[in-house]
Amino acid sequence: MVFSLGDLAVKFGCDVVGNPETEISSVATLSSAKEGSLTFYSNALYKEKLKKTNASVVVLKGSDIDLCPVDALLCEDPYQIYTKIVALLYPLPCYDGKVSEHALIKNGANVAESSYIGEFTSIGRDVTIGENVFIGPGCIIEGNVNVAANSRIIANVTIINSVDIGERVIIHPGAVIGADGFGNVKTENGWLKINQIGGVKIGNDVEIGSNTTIDRGSLEDTVIHNGVRLDNLIQIGHNVSIGEHTAIAASAAIAGSSKIGKRCMIAGQVGIVGHINICDDVRINGAAVITKDIKKPGVYSGSFPFEEDKVWKKLVAKFRRSNK
Amino acid sequence: MVFSLGDLAVKFGCDVVGNPETEISSVATLSSAKEGSLTFYSNALYKEKLKKTNASVVVLKGSDIDLCPVDALLCEDPYQIYTKIVALLYPLPCYDGKVSEHALIKNGANVAESSYIGEFTSIGRDVTIGENVFIGPGCIIEGNVNVAANSRIIANVTIINSVDIGERVIIHPGAVIGADGFGNVKTENGWLKINQIGGVKIGNDVEIGSNTTIDRGSLEDTVIHNGVRLDNLIQIGHNVSIGEHTAIAASAAIAGSSKIGKRCMIAGQVGIVGHINICDDVRINGAAVITKDIKKPGVYSGSFPFEEDKVWKKLVAKFRRSNK
Amino acid sequence: MVFSLGDLAVKFGCDVVGNPETEISSVATLSSAKEGSLTFYSNALYKEKLKKTNASVVVLKGSDIDLCPVDALLCEDPYQIYTKIVALLYPLPCYDGKVSEHALIKNGANVAESSYIGEFTSIGRDVTIGENVFIGPGCIIEGNVNVAANSRIIANVTIINSVDIGERVIIHPGAVIGADGFGNVKTENGWLKINQIGGVKIGNDVEIGSNTTIDRGSLEDTVIHNGVRLDNLIQIGHNVSIGEHTAIAASAAIAGSSKIGKRCMIAGQVGIVGHINICDDVRINGAAVITKDIKKPGVYSGSFPFEEDKVWKKLVAKFRRSNK
Question: Looking at C37, C65, C89, which one is the last position of a domain?
Fold first, then answer.
C-alpha cells in the first residue's frame, strides 16, 4: 500500500512540513529507513540518528522540527500517530467467512456465516461464534463458549468450559482459557479435588499472549475486563479479576481470587499471591512479589539489582549475619 | 440435581439442624447464596457474612451453630464435606466409549472399548489406553505410552516417549509430558546434545495443570508419585522425582535430578536448582529459590516483601553500601 | 545395537584398557550399570561408586584408571565421549519422506519429498520445507515460513508469520514461534495495538524447549543465532537477539529488544528487562533480574538463599528497619 504525506496528514489531523506528494510505502527505524519509509522521533536519546535519517518522512513534535533533515508530519504524540500509520500500511489480515473442510463443527454449534474456521479446529455443540470471527487452525473450542464479533483466535488455542469472549479480542497460540483452577482440599488420604464450576468472562478489546493460561472460576467467574493486555506465559488463577486497560508482561503469575484494578501496569515475572486486592493505577516493577493489598496508586518494587557474583556473595553473607 | 438436607446428612455422616426435607440444588458463597443453595463456613473472618446469608443450608462445625440463621449440616471439617457435596452436585462429565471418526488410531495401538478418543487426536502404534479413559480433542499420544483406567486428558495435550500414566490422572490442556530434557555437553564447537533416553512415570490420582512441562529422564525416569498436584506452567526437569501428595503451585520450576519428598507444599514461582534433595513435609513460600538440600520438615522462605518504589530504592542502596 | 570396546576406541580415538572384544549394548549410571552397559566417570564425588560399578566399560581419564574395576575407554573428556556413545547406541529416530494422509498441505506450499509431515499438521501456502525435515503431528506452520534441511519439529508446535528456521534445528511440543510481540501504545482510550511486522530468524543447530515462546519482531526480526539452546517455558520478546551457542534454562524471560552475547549461560527463572545489552561469555545465576547492561564477561547473581521462615522473617524485618 502507498499513501502520500498529504493523505496521512488529513487522515490523522497532522501538519505537513515538506512536500505533501511524498509517497510512503513502509515504516522503519530512524537508522534503517530508506526512501519511501516513514519513521518517528520522540526520544532525545536518538537525536543524532534523527539528523542522519534517510527516511522520506518523520513523525515528530513541532518543537523538534529543526532537527529533522527530511519531510515531516507534526503532531502531539508521534508514537501514537506512527502506530496508527503502521496499522494502515500493515493491516491485520482479512478473511472471508468460510469453514475449512478439515474443521469439525459439531451439531448444535452456532457459527456466523461471516466467520472463518480453520483446519483441524473443532467447535463444540454449545458454542456460539459471532460475526467476522477468525478462528485459525488447530483450535479446540467447546463447552458453552461464546466468541463475540470480530475476535481473532490465532491457532492451537484451547477454550473450554463456560467462557464468554467479547468483541475484537485477540488470542495467541497455545493459550488455554477455562481449564480447571487449582483447587484442592487436604484430607487424611491426600488431596481432594474441588470441582471447578465457575467460568471465564473476557471483555472487549482484550489481547492474550501465547501459552498464557486463564483458569475458570472455582465457583464464580474469572474476569478479564475490557481493554486488558496479557503477554505470554502468564498464569491467571481461578476467580481472579483484572480491571479495565491493565497490562501484564510475560511470565507473571496471579494466584487465585486476587483482584487487580484498572489501568495497572504489571511487569514481567511479577508474582501476586492469592486473595490480594490491588487498587487502580498501580505500577509494579519486574519480579516483585506482592503479598498484601495495595491501596494507594503508585509505583512498587521488590527485586534486587544483580551484582558480580563475588560481590553478591559478600552482600548476602553480610545480610545473613545481620540477624546475629 | 437435587438433594435433600437429610440425604446429604446420611451420605456424609453429618448431623442436621433444621428441616431434613430442605432441598439443595446448587452451591454458592455465603454472600451470593440464595434459596436452594448450600454454602459453608469455617473461617471467623466471614462471621458477619454467615449471619446474613440467604443460603438454604450452611455446612459448619457444631460450635458455630449459634451464628447460623438457616438450616445447617454439622461436621468436623466443613470445607471437606462441602467439597464432596460440590462433586455430588456438579460431577465431572461422563463419556461413553467411542472413537471420534476424526481421530487417528494407528495400527498396533491398543485402546479399550470403554474409552473415549476425541477429534483430531492421534494415538500412536505403541500406545495402550486403559478402561474408561477420556482423551479429548487435539491430543498427540505416541511412542510407548500407557494411560491407565479412568484417566482424563482434556485437550491439546502432548504425551511422547515412554510415558506411563496411572489411574484417575487428570491432565489439562497444553501440558507436554515426555519431551526431551535439557541435556547438553560443552565442546570446542558449541553444545552437543545428550540424547535423552529415560521416560516419565506418573502415579495414580495425579493432576497436571495447563501448559505444564514434564521432561523425560536423561537416562533413568522422571517420576511423579501418587496423588501429586501440579498447577499450570510448571517446569519439571529430567530425572526429577516428586513425592506422594506433594502440591506445587503455578509457574514453579524444578531443575533436573532434584528429588522432592512427600506431602510438600511448594508455592508459586518457587525455583529449585538441580540435584537438590528436599525431605518430606516441607512447605516453601512463594518465589523462594532453593539452592541446597532441605533436611528438616518445616516452612522455608526467600523472597522479600515489596515496597513503594522510592522506599525500596533507599533500602537497596543501603544494602549495597553494607559491603563497604 | 551392539558395539565392541575396540570399535568405540577406533571411532572416538580413545585408548582401550582391557578386552577390545567386550560388547556394549546400553548405557547406565555407575550404580545401575550391568553387564553390557557402558558408563562414565569424571567427578571425584562418585569415586566410591566407580570402585563398585558393575558396568562392562567405564569411560574415564587415564589418570583415574587405577580406580576402575572393569574395562575402560581412556580419553580427555569422558562426558563428551560418553555423550557421543549415547548418540550412537540411541540415535534420534529416522523417518522416511512421507506426508500423512491426515495432514493438510495447502496449495503453493513447497515440501521436499524426503520430508515427513505428520497427521493433523497443516502446512500453509507460503511455506517451504527443506530436505529430510521431520514435522510431527498436530503442528501449524503457516505464513511465509521456511524450515531448512534436517530439522525436527516434534509435535503440536505453532510457527507463524515470517519465520526462517535453519538446519538441524529441534523444536519441542507446544513451542510458539512468530506470534505477535507485546506492543502497545497508551492512549486516552486505553491501549492501542502496535501491529507487529517483523519476523523471526533461527540459525542452525538450535534447540527450543517445550512451551517456549519466541515472538516475531515489531519492526525488525527477532534473532536466535546458531547453536543456541533454549529450555522449556522461556519467553523471548520481540526484537531480542541471542548470540551463538548461548544456553538458557527453563522459565527465564527475556523482554523486548534485549541483545545477549555469544556463549552465555543463563540459569532458570532469570529475568532480563527490555533494551539491555549483555556481552559475550556471561554467566547469570538462577532467578537474577538483569536491569542494566553487562559489559564484562563473568558470573553475575542476584537471588537470595532461602532460610527457615522464622529466620527469614527476622532478616527481612532487620532489612526493612535499615532504612530508618
Answer: C89
* Any A CB within 8 A of B28 CB: yes
Within a domain: B319: no
A176 with A267, same domain?
yes
- Which residues does chain A have with pLDDT short of 50? none
Claim to verify: residue A60 and residue A167 sit in the same structural domain? no
* B238 assigned to active site: yes
We report the CATH number of the domain holding residue C293 as 2.160.10.10
The closest alpha carbon to C233, from C172, C288, C278, C286, belongs to C172
The DSSP element (H or E) to which A131 belongs, if any, is none
Q: Cα C178 from chain centroid?
A: 18
Q: Which residue is it, cell 445447617? A: B72
Residues of chain C in contact with residue B300, where contact means CB-CB under 8 angstroms, are 306-309, 312
Q: Are B300 and C309 in contact (CB < 8 Å)?
A: yes
Q: How confident is the model at residue C324 (pLDDT cuts 50, 70, 90)?
A: low
* Predicted confidence (pLDDT) at residue C48 exceeds the cutoff of 80: yes
Do A273 and B251 lie within an 8 Å CB cutoff? no
- The b-or-e profile of C12-43 (16+ CB within 10 A means b, else e) is bebebbeeeebebebbbbbeebeeebbbbbee
Same domain assignment for residues C184 and C51 = no
In a domain, B106, yes or no: no
- Closest chain A C-alpha to C105 CA, distance in angstroms: 11
Co-location of C289 and C181 in the same domain: yes
CA distance C265 to C283: 5
Q: Is the pLDDT of residue B324 over 80?
A: no
- Among residues A31, A59, A89, the one where a domain terminates is A89
Say which CATH number the domain at A14 has: 3.40.1390.10
C318 — phi, psi (to 5°)? Answer: -60, -45
Residue at B84 is within a domain:
yes
pLDDT above 90: percentage of residues in chain B: 98
Domain membership flag for residue C277: yes
Q: Please identify every residue of A annotated as catalytic.
A: 238
Tally the domains of chain A: 2
Residue B323 has a pLDDT of 72
Domain that holds residue B63: 3-89
Bridge partners of residue B213, in order along the sequence: B176, B235
d(CA C103, CA B104): 11
Question: A225 vs A128, A246, A270, B93, CA distance in Å?
Answer: 20, 9, 20, 29
Alpha-carbon distance A286 to nearest alpha carbon in chain C (angstroms): 8
**pLDDT of C323 higher than 80:** no
- Residue C36, chain B, CB below 8 Å: the answer is no
Same domain, C66 and C168: no
Kindly report the pTM of this predicted structure. Answer: 0.98
pLDDT tens digits, C1-27: 899 999 999 999 999 999 999 999 999
Query: pLDDT tens across B272-306, in order?
Result: 999 999 999 999 999 999 999 999 999 999 999 99
ipTM of model: 0.97
DSSP of B45-97: GGHHHHHH---SEEEE-GGGGGG-SSEEEE-S-HHHHHHHHHHHHSPPPP--S
Same domain, yes or no: C67 and C165: no
- Tell me the per-residue pLDDT of A190-203, one tens digit each, with 9 for 90 and over: 999 999 999 999 99
Q: Judged by CB atoms within 8 Å, which residues 55-84 of A form the interface with C? A: 77, 79-80, 83-84
